Batch of 4 targets.
Target 1
Amino acid sequence: MAYELPPLPYDYNALEPYIDEATMRVHHDGHHGAYVKNVNAALEGTQFANLPIEEVLRRINEVPENIRTAVRNNGGGHANHSMFWRIMKPHGGGAPTGALADAINATFGSFEQFKEQLNDAGNKRFGSGWAWLVMDQSGKLQVISTANQDNPLMDGLYPIMGIDVWEHAYYLKYQNRRGEYLNAWWNVANWDEIARRYEEARGVR
């Protein structure tokens, strides 16, 4: 069954003033829409076409070599953005609570230190990519970054949250000020969804 572009869980302008309406329209309808179209085309007629995109990414090295790059880029883009829309919300921000907060404090020292590490990973990602909070196979949290639309599932890691640092995610509003965008992003973080993904990670590893 072909993948579909998921609707935004809020209006295009709902994340203002931190993420502008024009960016959300181009980012969701244009970029994410293209990833969905292209990964469907690449996988059509293969044994992977009916698998969840996350399973395809976990098995990326089994995907036929002639379509692997297209699936890596566009399937990764579909999975990454499907997560990205959900880990943001209007009137978000603040700090996590409960088990996720405890794990962040235990791993990084404090929430503020965690934010600094994730922002640093995003700022230092040369070119296009993502900054991630992931869980490894042992249950340990890590901050990493990936290039382009690579997803941590490709490396056996579980993505708990990721911030898009492609220029299309911020350039209309922030131009070359990626650091300003990263600082602003935390005002739309949806900690309920991120905590749900943390609990999911604990259950699937």
Target 2
Amino acid sequence: MAVRVAREGRLALDAALADQLVPELLHRWRALDALPHTTPRQLLAHTSGLPNYFRDEAFMARLREEPRRVWRPVELVDHAAAHGTPRFSPGQGFEYSDTGYVVAGILVEQATGRPLHGVYRELVFDPVGMDRTWLEGHEPAREQEVAHHYSDELDWTTVSPTIDWAGGGLVTAAPDLARFVRALWSERVVDSRGLDDLTQWTPGASFPPGHALRYERYGLGIGSNVVEGVELLGHTGFIGAFAFYARDYDAVLVGTHNASQVDRWPLVAALCRELREAQI
């Protein structure tokens, strides 16, 4: 979404946050002393060095103590500032951080003057026809029930959905997700230069073998993998979700598991084998 708003001239991907984020927030998060010198591109490429609140043990302890607490987006960054340590200087490393997505979401709200879920709906959901998709905890549900997702014994539907927000707080259905992927790569979400930004691969940005997210190359919220000889462009979710575009086959692959310990990649590999065999 930040790339779309940037293409409309309402924020600058390569300008420092000191020139774009309100000073009150920069002061509030002054413990993150490199944040004013960080750019939105670095937030989206995970090269900001911001500590990841979502992977912090103190944050998980707070969730166990107050699972239904409603979190404001600024409070998620507050936690990172209070409990985390920057991992490296901006642009000097690569490490996935939900905190960066939250800061980028706050910047989008400031740039547009609208709540993030309203921006999603105006610029993407309504034009694309994603009628079963919503930002959980921030707007009314569009379905009576959602799938349960588990990390060991933890059922994530028992935890306030506001813990994720711009880092992945959307609820959707497979047809809606497929519509989004198709719309993205047909330049209905961002134009061709926006797609170039999304797929401008970050030097040194990859995950080690065996990592659940598994990106061999990473751009701005989008990664690239080759599975069974098929190049996949897209994103993987916190539990087991995936949304990929196989450009050489003009095919969309979306799906999910509902348990974090289940490996999504055998399913993805099976789908890729089906693609290849269908071309023979």
Target 3
Amino acid sequence: MHLTVTKLNTDLLNIHADVQQALAHKKPVVALESTIISHGMPYPQNVETAFRVEETVRKGGAVPATIAILDGQLCVGMTADEIDYLGKAGADVTKTSRRDIPFIVSAKKDGATTVAATMIIAGLAGIEFMATGGIGGVHRGVEETMDVSADLEELARTNIAVVCAGVKSVLDIGRTLEYLETLGVPVVGYQTDTVPAFYARSSGFSVVYRADDAETVAKALHAKFSLGLDGAMLITNPVPEAFALNPQEIDATIEQALEEMNRRGITGKDTTPFLLARIADQTAGSSLTTNIELVVNNARVAADIAVAYSQLD
């Protein structure tokens, strides 16, 4: 049996003019995911946050590239109207990871990209930096469900620097870190000795490598890429202290939300949106504020690293 290998169909890749120009002139570009717009927050906060994140990247000296699939096109960089559409459509837009991309593209549908799908499309466009909220990982109770996010496998294969606020608190952070170690993905603490826990500034798990400035990360990333060591570098950046939640209180809230989720039989890609919504309700909206601020903060750091990297050349 012979497999037919075809080149990338660039007709499916729709790169916004600003992003295309930046890439052509080797200017720093930061990719941004779109699941957070359609599935991570309610309207209009989701759209307001997306605009604020893009502006933060611009102020940092880089070009933002929000990524999604629209009408079967892999969009790298979006207009304000397109972002507003994703925010209003919400969960009606398919949450799209690696396995979903062929079907969303071939059917000419719309897809909000997860961390994994955003990394893939950013890689196709030649973007080496990305900011998100928190990554997916090993779910609690994995010994029964075998539920492990596709984000982890993508981090092992795609050459990109991902800035996040750690692993989502609703997951098994310890097992996720062990899995990342097995995959050879370096986890860096940005101005911290411990991996942040999304809503909280620390999970209690230590990092092997700490970086106190963007230049340190840029140099390590340059060495990684120069040596041909495939895979991502994960830069974990704690939420600003003013917006961090108490670890004990948020853990108790998460446990309640998990119990309700299990009672309702919610599984798969529906788990994270459900848990985030329940946690926001239980915390009277304070978790949503934290979520917004940590995403903005990650965009700021990602822009700093992208600019520092561009200056190495």
Target 4
Amino acid sequence: MCAVAVALATAPAGCSVGPDYIPEAAPVPKTFKELKGWKRATPSDSFPRGDWWAFYHDPKLNFLIKQVEISNQTVAAQAAAYEQARALIREAQALLFPTLSASYTATRSFSGLATRTAVASAATGQPGTFTSTFIPALSGTWDIDVWGKVRRQIESNASAAQVSAADLDNVKLSAQALLATAYFNLRTADALRDLLLRTVQEYKKTLDIVRNQFNAGYSVSMADVDVAEAQVFNTESQAINVGVQRAQFEHAIAVQIGRPPAELTIARRPLSGTIPKLPVTVPSALLERRPDIAAAERAMQEENALIGVAVAAYFPDITLSAVLSWSGNQPLPFKLANEMWSLGAAGTQILFDGGLRGAQIDAARAFYWQSVASYRQTVLLAFQGVEDELAAIRILTQQLAVQQKAVADQRQAVQIYLTQFQAGTVAFTTVVTAQIQLLAYEVSELTIRQDLFLASVLLIQDLGGGWDVNLLPTKKELEEDFSLLPQLPPNRAGLRLESPKNPPRP
């Protein structure tokens, strides 16, 4: 019986009723609109697998992002969901095997005598008879998966586990991207603080010039001194205020690596350098590089297999049963006696259900086409994301070059106005206006540089990071990974999953 069960467990899906899965076509463009003159390349030689953040050559960022996979709690929750999905495969596989059970019955009975005989027997001290009966028994039932209903359910659960595995990788990628975004925002805050403090020093030099002009009796009023001094204090206030955003970015990074904000301190260092040159895959390769696309595609097979489960309800259920028991007058150890056994087979076919099964099949097909639409929408959004960030990087790069020229010209204008002010040919308000404009230009340049780094992070995320569809566990691996005993298999997220009897220590 077990040998037949194993054979059925490994039977090909072709023996199952319902449609076999054929992936639906995705709306894939031939080229990216924002890339001109690129050459075709296979996924393996266009974008490396692994630590995508290494492109930035930042040791601190490298250290922080690696903590996401270890202790991020959102990732931990999804890892547990993946383990649950694997357990559901084993639940479905258990239905391929017979159910065996054992029972043991002990009975103590009394048999009395007729009234007249009982009176006579009472005089002799024998009022009746006590009898003990012990019946050990073994029984088994087996619902044979003739039409492949269980195998279709296993197929669906295996696809669902692949969906969960892809979701796990997608959650990790999203958490890593969120951390990288917070990190570059923090570095931008450091750069802004440094810019404001440098500006404060320049304003103090201007304040000294104004005071000297006022003390020397030149055409400078006390109001000009007050304006120069207020400019210093206002810029110092802005530099202090930057600390609020920096603290919040640091706290966000701490949460992403699963640590309380009080336990993380990141040394100050301004944003510097340029974004890396990122290899962009051909559009068709994006289907193999995005875990969310892989999850949507696996969801189609999950729903397709459930159509087969619904179709199998039209066919009769065939059940085998067997009972073997013994009866004796002694408890264990006992002498076997009065052996009894029975074998049976039963078939059940629903003759009328008011259209229930037909409605269930229609619902299963509707769910499948819903998953097809979701898959195609996921693909479209993926291409939109890549095009958005490619456009952003191209346009921001052009804008940064122009803005740098504006900063250089405005800085030169400030020096000229300051020289003219010292010569008494322009009013101090002209210098103040030029300095305010210079600071605004410099802040704008820093913002553009920040946007470039953030766009590069989003582009890497839209390209799937270092992920590849080959990282998904195969259906064969998932379907062979089961046991008849409870187990907690190793999880794919690198996280330690504790049993309820051993809660994690803080």
